[in-house]
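Worked example 4.2. Below are the chains of a multi-component assembly; read each line carefully before continuing.
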Amino acid sequence: MVNGHWAIEAQGLWKEYGSTRVLQDVSLTVAPGEGLVLLGPNGAGKTTLLKILATLIRPTAGLVRIAGYELRRDADAIRRHVGLLAHGSYLYEDLTAVENLQFFATLHGLAVRKGDLLRALGDVDLGGDADQRVREFSLGMKRRLAFARLGLQRPRVLLLDEPFAGLDQQGIKRVEDSLTAFKEEGAAVLMVTHNLGHGLAMADRVAILAAGRVAVERNRHGLDPEALSALYTTHTGDR
Amino acid sequence: MGWVTAIGLLSGLSAGFLYAPRDAVQGNVQRIMYLHVPSVLTAYLAFGVVFLASLAYLFSQRSRWDRLAAASAEVGVVFTGLTLVSGSVWGKPTWGTWWTWDARLTTTALLFLIYVSYLLVRGMVEDRERAARFSAVVGIIGAIDVPIIHFSVQWFRTLHQPATLLRPQAPTMDATMVFTLLLNVGAFILFYIYLTRMRLHLTQLEERT
Amino acid sequence: MYLRRAWAVFWKDSLVERRSKEMANGLFFFAFLLLFLFHFALGPDRARIEMAFPGLLWLGFLLTGLLGLGRTFLGERENDCLEGLVLAPGDKSAIYLGKVAGGVVLMLLLQVFLLLLFTVFYNLEMRKVLPGLAFVGALGAIGFAAVGSLFAAITAQVRARELLFPLLLLPVVIPLLLGAVAATGELVQSHSLSAARHWLALLAGADLIYLTTGLLTFEFILEA
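Applying the procedure described above to all three chains together yields the following structure tokens:
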């Protein structure tokens, strides 16, 4: 914990759209250097939860603290410390890879040089495509370019929404490795996914979100894949 | 509140149509003034409330300010409509036409358009908080724009009666006329408060279900 | 820092537009079309066209600008880029400033193009009024872009945006239209702006007020 704070702390989160309850009394914590994987079927409220933590959606009720900052008061301070890999890539199709990174860096007030941009691209195997327009990229390449932003930003909290979607085996391995590296540098990682196959390597804990509630939370160690998928089926009714 | 308003309106309008003297030049048509002037003043009051409530909402993020702005805007649009209609009825015999491109009439018509689009924005955004913030911005721009519109339209052309009551010199109206007019202005303001409160009450009922 | 961020938004938008040319082609073609419509509406009488010139010119700017400014934030919808802008820490009005700058440049380009078309097709003599017209045009462009960018940020997040944008923008910018038309009319008549000084003051005042309001309120529009 930094200064006695969790990196991510949510207490009693509720989110309602009209009469639909998307989240009901969700509480979770992630310490610096820790990885939590949140599993759940489509419609369980995973993306909503992640967007609340990233300051994109306001909760109906509940408390959120990221890196020690309270969401309602200090959303702007939170944004300086959070890196989000969302469903949308936030990429401009008519800019090149390096231009996209440059724009992101300037807008976020990051002090980076051209060399840093190229290094971040190299880290995700896009070094040779720096001056290609994003429109010509495959889905996996776009995914990796979006991931390269996190390398520039070096956030204290990483929030990832299905980070492995569209990646090939090599890409998955790359992302898993860099997530572990982020953790070793002290960043907290929260990843949501409906895919039980990937990303568990970097997880310290696993939780299951079903119908807007955290149904169960376990230490990952001592939880083999069969036990996990049995647990998942029990709580979500999903195979 | 409802009864007081009803009595106020009734006595105001009956005073306007029965008690106050006939205008020497314009005749009975002039009596529309007792409807026209109070409704335009009330409309301006309503949009002033929209402006202040919008500001208050953006600063405090409390939804009751947003509800007040919305209710006041709806009532204000109704009063603006009333102003335009009564103005036309007055204009036909006085100026010989239903509509003229006179400065204050045009300003009022533009005001009507601005606040109708304000209400449209509210209706088109699903998320409540977003709708509130978007419409607050539109409400603020709209209010700030009123003086700009007023000057530009006034310079463009003008043939309205000079403002009679709010002029620094002594009013050129008969004392009973002034009294009747003020009575009606008071009654209309009560009517505005009553309608806005009803609208707020209705919103609360809608939200509870 | 603030200006660098505003510049980044402007730079990004102009780069995208230079490469895709999505907007430019459509708008220039539309301006061309408008000229024909004006011609058919007024007939071949040259005196009539000359008399209506200030109004037609600004109607042309207004209609093409309406289409162009309405797209200010449309490009941000692809890949959820709008969310990315929300996530950027710091003063959001820098983004607004960058968008307004882009809008002003777009409006100025459209004005040059429309003037060229008017000169060629209606055979009007422009040389004497050109400097004054550039001044009035710049004042008008700033005001339109200031209100237009603000409302475009709203309508980009709304369902019926094609409909809502003109409904919001047109009544608010009427003073700009009146001032610009009146000043242009004065210019055409007397080849000088001195008689239209109060109109120029109104335009400049309106620009200042719109821009300030936009800078102060933009964060409430681009916020979660």
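Take a moment to check your reading of the output against the notes. The interface with chain C takes residues 51, 54-58, 75-77, 79-80, 82, 84, 86-95, 99, 102-104, 106-109, 133 of chain A (CB under 8 Å). DSSP finds seven helices and ten strands in chain A.
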